[in-house]
């Protein structure tokens, strides 16, 4: 019998993260402050430690994973790579389907791949506390777990409506020792402002970000942590693709196409970027980011400088965006409801080195249920997007008789999302194609910036922006 699951030994956990910046045809554009100039280190150092900023700005191809982080990774890594043979049979496709399963982590998704090194890098910088925001709770629970690994106190501002509707994610955070508050709170200036405007506010991710950032900026022992979008988060997630490559090599396979769900872009980058390096070296693997039709930042957004949050507190980043005040409908893939897209993924998409497709909600649940019935694992609604796109390709292979090798990232399990599955079975879920006119309306509110050129700052030493020199010492 051929193996269904391809395992690696703990000693094969990658020793380095892969930094795609080193292989990009053009250097990334810098984040801009309110005055339209690149954001300076003093501003960034208020909310992130130098250890993180150095990675954020790095142009070095390989960045060593600290041994303490590899040891914490060993609690669940290397994660399995599996052949979805029963799904192939159910589809009657000649394609081979593989998936990398990130649901084996303590929190059930890929997010601890970055939460753990972020907690560690803050600890070595002497930081005692971390703040963050969380919507559905996947990131908050991952940072709570990571903080516990390294003795860092974690305070989480959880969007009020999720705080009330997702009690078990909240319980997980508390079990791992974090403090969780329903945002908006009356503990921050920003929170008090939101409550003054609307005492019954249900909260939003943008409000929670404002509260978490304000607290981090106001205390020397406290920094802020973000679960996606930024370069260092994408970097940490490359352990997924690096392991997958080794696992496929063990059985003499190489993928023709790779699919991953795409919210802020971190798990897509994680599985795809290590393969992008092979494309630079002459291989041909198609890398497909899969987003919801209800929040189609890559497929229908504009490539422009925009804020990362609704309130306009964050620096502006050049990215595919639907406009920072775009209000995505309440779909069940909470992790994919973001108006923008990571700057690195955006630039690679702009340069046509990666692809994107949008899929409607009902079809994603149909794919997820089909996967669960064939393979057993119940996927997170976010992951269902990648499964949908992969199944569509497998069906095209069936029609054409091509035996492609397909790989997708099963970014998490859906055990905390069963109410969404219930609603799907009850026929209560809907498809939602965002109307072009509504996107154009929110795009009208993009901030105005002059032309920004990439960077005299990205220097030949390959290690990022010149303004980091002072803090690197
Ligand atoms: C958060 C999340 C996503 C989307 O976030 P990315 O940064 O785009 O990876 C996808 N799947 C799961 C299970 C998540 O928790």
Explain briefly what this protein structure is.
The chain has 473 residues and is an alpha/beta fold.
Descriptors for this entry?
473 residues; alpha/beta; Rossmann fold; seven-stranded mixed β-sheet; four-stranded parallel β-sheet; 15 strands; 41% helix; disordered C terminus; binds pyridoxal-5'-phosphate
Biggest sheet architecture: 7 strands, mixed
Count of beta strands = 15
- Uncertain runs are 455-473
User: Compounds present?
Assistant: pyridoxal-5'-phosphate
State the strand order across the main sheet: 1-4-5-15-10-11-14
Please state the overall shape, judged from the principal axes of the Cα atoms.
globular
Structural class: alpha/beta
What is the CATH C-level name of the domain at 66-108 and 232-443?
Alpha Beta
The second-level CATH architecture of the domain at 66-108 and 232-443 is 3-Layer(aba) Sandwich
| Strand composition percent | 15-25%
CATH topology of the domain at 66-108 and 232-443: Rossmann fold
Number of H/I helices: 20
Q: pLDDT average, as an integer? A: 92
Cα-atom Rg, whole angstroms? 21 Å
Report how far apart the termini are: 56 Å
Question: What's the helical proportion of residues?
Answer: 40-55%
């Amino acid at each position: 019998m051929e193996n269904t699951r391809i395992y690696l030994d703990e000693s094969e956990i990658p020793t380095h993260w892969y930094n795609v910046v080193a292989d990009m045809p053009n250097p990334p554009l810098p984040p801009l402050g309110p005055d339209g100039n690149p954001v300076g280190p003093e501003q960034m150092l208020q909310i992130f430690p130098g250890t993180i900023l150095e990675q954020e700005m790095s142009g070095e191809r390989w960045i060593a994973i600290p041994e303490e982080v590899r040891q914490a990774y060993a609690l669940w890594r290397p994660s399995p790579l599996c052949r979805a043979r029963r799904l192939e049979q159910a589809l009657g496709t000649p394609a081979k389907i593989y998936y990398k399963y990130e649901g084996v982590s303590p929190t059930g998704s890929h997010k601890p791949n970055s939460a753990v090194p972020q907690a560690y890098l803050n600890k070595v910088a002497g930081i005692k506390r971390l703040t963050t925001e969380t919507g559905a709770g996947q990131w908050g629970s991952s940072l709570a777990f990571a903080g516990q690994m390294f003795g860092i106190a974690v305070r989480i501002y959880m969007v009020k409506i999720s705080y009330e509707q997702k009690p078990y994610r909240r319980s997980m955070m508390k079990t791992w020792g974090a403090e969780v508050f329903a945002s908006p709170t009356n503990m921050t200036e920003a929170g008090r402002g939101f409550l003054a405007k609307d005492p019954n506010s249900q909260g939003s991710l943008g409000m929670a970000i404002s509260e978490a950032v304000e607290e981090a900026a106001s205390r020397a022992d406290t920094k802020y942590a973000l679960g996606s979008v930024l370069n260092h988060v994408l970097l940490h997630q490359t352990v997924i693709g690096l392991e997958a490559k080794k696992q496929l090599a063990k059985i003499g396979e190489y993928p023709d196409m790779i699919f991953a769900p795409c919210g802020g872009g971190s798990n897509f980058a994680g599985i795809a970027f290590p393969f992008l390096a092979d494309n630079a070296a002459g291989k041909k693997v198609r890398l497909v980011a899969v987003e919801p039709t209800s929040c189609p930042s890559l497929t229908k957004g504009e490539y422009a400088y925009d804020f990362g949050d609704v309130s306009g507190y964050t620096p502006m980043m050049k990215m595919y965006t639907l406009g920072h005040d775009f209000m995505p409908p309440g779909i069940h893939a909470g992790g994919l409801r973001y108006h923008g897209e990571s700057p690195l993924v955006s630039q690679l998409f702009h340069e046509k080195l990666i692809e994107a497709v949008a899929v409607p909600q009902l079809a994603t649940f149909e794919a997820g249920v089909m996967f669960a019935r064939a393979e057993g694992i119940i996927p997170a609604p976010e992951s269902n997007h990648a499964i949908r796109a992969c199944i569509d390709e497998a069906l095209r292979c069936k029609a054409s008789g091509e035996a492609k090798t397909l790989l997708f990232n099963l970014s998490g399990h859906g055990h905390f999302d069963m109410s969404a599955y219930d609603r799907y079975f009850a026929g209560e879920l809907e498809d939602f194609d965002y109307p072009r006119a509504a996107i154009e309306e929110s795009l009208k509110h993009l901030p105005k910036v002059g032309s920004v050129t990439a960077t005299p700052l990205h220097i030949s030493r390959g290690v990022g922006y010149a303004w980091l020199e002072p803090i690197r010492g």
